[in-house]
TrEMBL record:
Domain annotation DTW: ranges: 133-362
Pfam families hit by this protein: DTW
Keywords on record: S-adenosyl-L-methionine, Transferase, tRNA processing
InterPro entries, A to Z: DTW, DTWD2/TAPT
GO biological process, one term: tRNA processing
GO molecular function, one term: tRNA-uridine aminocarboxypropyltransferase activity
PANTHER family, per database record: TRNA-URIDINE AMINOCARBOXYPROPYLTRANSFERASE (PTHR21392:SF4), TRNA-URIDINE AMINOCARBOXYPROPYLTRANSFERASE 2 (PTHR21392)
Enzyme Commission number, as recorded: 2.5.1.25
Protein name: tRNA-uridine aminocarboxypropyltransferase
Organism: Eruca vesicaria subsp. sativa (Garden rocket)
Keyword S-adenosyl-L-methionine: yes
Amino acid sequence: MRCFAGASALDFSPFQLGGIGRRLVMSSVSSQVRSRESGGCDDGVITEDEWRRWGAVSPFPASVKQIVDDLKVLELKVDAQIEFGGNGGKLQGAFGAYEDKKHRATYEALDDPEKKFRFFSARQVACRLLGSRGYLCQKCWLAMEDCMCSNVKTCGLWKRIRFWLYMHPRDFLRQNNTGKLLWQVFGVHSASLCVFGIAEDEELMWNEFKRAGKSNVRCLYPNQNSELTLSVENTFGSSTSENPGSSMADEDKTLHFILLDGTWNNSAAMLKRLKDHAKTVWGDEDLPCISLATGASAMHKLRPQPSWDRTCTAAAAIALLSELSLLPQLSSHGLDKQADAVEEALVILLDSLTGRRLRMGRSITRKVRNPINIC
């Protein structure tokens, strides 16, 4: 039995939008009304079209659909409406209490850590989808009254690059998530969402990696002590034929960059899952990683990081594009302009989140965490 690192640490908070934005209290009736206004179905069913409007490129996951269907059936059984609210936006009331016991029993009955993990991920996504309908904009994931879409300028990403936002389910539909900016700016086929633990998403991503080959897949992870973690210069600066950077102009070659989109506590388990899968596909778990010369992101004002080499997802993409643009063989592809486009979108997001906090009478600064002593 293959154990998933981190499975024992999973908890049962189904719907946490993050620290920015009001807590959502919504019954399924009001959710359905708002869903009709935003193009969803009026019977509480989530369609594949609605799923993809949130930024997904995969088919609507069967496991998520099953949980949504189960919740709707349970709603009729207990004769109580689905309602989200309170600290963390959890399921509330009589329905919430009943469902909490039911899903815990289901989780405990699963005898395989992989099944437990997939159930956890699917339930997180299902609850967030139901709770966000008609409240969050499906493109920018902000509350409707704070929608920033009209201010974001789209930009074409160089066709030899594709980003993969490998997102933890707890970051899915978070208002202060920055990974979403990449597909807002570049489009979903240049920056694609893959939710950690969702089978359809992971299968689609790995099918693309298999076609590309291991030499054209890189993970951005600032673990500078690892022998497999190299700088952009060391990875792509050489002009040898073995270097994937030397053939990036090849029409048949696309370089895939994986961005781990989750908290730093979760990123180690996410990287381990990638390495485990790499071993089943390519025979070893040596998934090459890239470390960037990142600095402080604009989002540090609201989301301070534990150390300076750890930054938000969008800032990591900006740093990668900026460093690649300095390489002579890639300097003509406008990567610096593409980095600027993401930087502008990041500032717009920060302004939107800051404005909301000010209207709500909340602080626009976050307590700085204790720095990590690396000496």
